[in-house]
């Protein structure tokens, strides 16, 4: 990790500081206090680089990411930079990574950061974290000269470089503006805490507190809350709301999920969060469709659209058809239309043709429509009378 001659910063948080005041005689006469409020902003940026193996072997110049910020209102602009073969003689043979502050309205910006590589399963690996907050001036960069060995990275294809792509993720924590109060006649302002509803509901599920129903998955039994299930899932609401066995016994048997997938679904129902969606989107799509979890279904479609590839396109089309995912189906057909010759050679395409022949007709119809739109001349203008 590269360092500069900068001074460390220390942060106070809601700690009253009593300063003894002395009168002219030297005796303690009064006390006053000080208060400093410091807040932090955290955000994550993901950067995918295609044809990375060739770039790593052949390029010597650094490659820089698009500019990014924490949001529309943030005026700080950042970028990531990769040096394929290090930045000096000592780091030769390593890939170096840096975070650069391109512009900022107020200087300096204090920040710490963490880098990961995202593997083919969508999981974070090969992470490195800055040991402390660093002062960023405009156009200044901080990072890791020896982030990862080039030879190791190339040897891990396709685990780390699926489809010859490098997926790099950077998490940045920025110190926000602080303000101070002092004088015994002033008091700290009222600070509104962040909403912790999702965290608290998650604890309600994890700790099985105040439960009133049972869910049986395989040989395991879980406790839950009928009201939360009914509000979040129309399928559960129908079970508990009508004169069904589940309503009378407060017990539901689930036969189509493994305990791990069931826990993930319940985590989403209670908190609205869906971790590891990248590697489990196809399975979660089926669950979301069956139990009426509309937002999770849209999230799965969004993830699957981002992960389109020649090898998986036909399988994605089948998933979209089975689970009535209209937007995903349109995107899959468009991708197949654009890569028809490559997709038609894949095993997933041949499986689709054998099991869902009507989807083959839809794919050919989409292809024909695309070709017609390319061949049609521009419409003639109507003459005005």
From TrEMBL:
Supply the SMART domains for this chain. BTB, MATH
Q: Which family does it belong to?
A: Belongs to the Tdpoz family.
Query: Boundaries of each MATH domain copy?
Result: 42-172
Residues annotated as domain BTB: 211-273
Return the Gene3D superfamilies for the record: 6.10.250.3030, 6.20.250.50, Apoptosis, Tumor Necrosis Factor Receptor Associated Protein 2, Chain A, Potassium Channel Kv1.1, Chain A
Q: What is this protein called?
A: Speckle-type POZ protein-like
UniProt-listed InterPro entries: BTB/POZ_dom, MATH/TRAF_dom, SKP1/BTB/POZ_sf, TRAF-like
**Encoded by which gene?**
LOC121138314
């Amino acid at each position: 990790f590269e360092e500069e001659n900068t001074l460390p910063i220390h942060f106070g948080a809601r700690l009253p500081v009593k300063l003894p005041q002395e009168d002219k005689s030297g005796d303690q006469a009064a006390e006053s206090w000080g208060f400093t409020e410091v807040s932090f902003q955290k955000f994550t940026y993901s950067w995918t680089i295609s044809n990375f193996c060739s770039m790593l072997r052949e390029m010597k110049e650094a490659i820089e990411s698009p500019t990014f910020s924490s949001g529309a209102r943030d005026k700080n602009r950042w970028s990531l930079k990769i040096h394929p073969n290090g930045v000096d003689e000592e780091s030769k043979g390593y890939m170096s990574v840096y975070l650069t502050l391109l512009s900022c309205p107020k200087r300096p910006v204090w920040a710490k950061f963490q880098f990961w590589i995202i593997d083919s399963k969508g999981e974070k690996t090969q992470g490195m974290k800055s040991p402390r907050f660093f002062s960023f001036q405009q156009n200044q960069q901080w990072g890791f000269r020896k982030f990862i060995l080039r030879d190791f990275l190339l040897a891990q294809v396709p685990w780390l470089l699926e489809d010859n792509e490098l997926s790099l993720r950077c998490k940045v924590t920025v110190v926000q503006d602080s303000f101070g109060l002092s004088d015994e006649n002033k008091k700290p302002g009222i600070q509104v805490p962040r909403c912790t509803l999702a965290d608290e509901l998650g604890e309600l599920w994890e700790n099985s507190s105040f439960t009133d129903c049972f869910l049986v998955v395989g040989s395991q039994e879980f406790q839950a809350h009928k009201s939360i299930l009914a509000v979040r899932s129309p399928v559960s609401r129908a079970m508990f709301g009508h004169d069904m066995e589940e309503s009378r016994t407060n017990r539901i048997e689930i036969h189509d999920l493994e305990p791990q997938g069931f826990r993930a679904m319940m985590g989403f129902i209670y908190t609205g969060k869906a971790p590891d969606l990248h590697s489990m989107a196809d399975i979660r799509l089926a669950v979301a469709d069956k139990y009426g979890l509309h937002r999770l279904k849209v999230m799965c479609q969004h993830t699957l659209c981002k992960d389109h590839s020649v090898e998986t396109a036909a399988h994605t089309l089948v998933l979209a058809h089975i689970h009535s995912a209209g937007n995903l189906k349109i995107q899959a057909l468009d991708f197949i239309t654009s890569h028809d010759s490559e997709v038609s050679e894949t095993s997933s395409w041949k499986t689709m043709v054998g099991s869902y022949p009507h989807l083959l007709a839809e794919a050919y119809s989409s292809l024909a429509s695309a070709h017609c739109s390319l061949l049609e001349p521009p419409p003639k203008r109507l003459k005005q009378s």
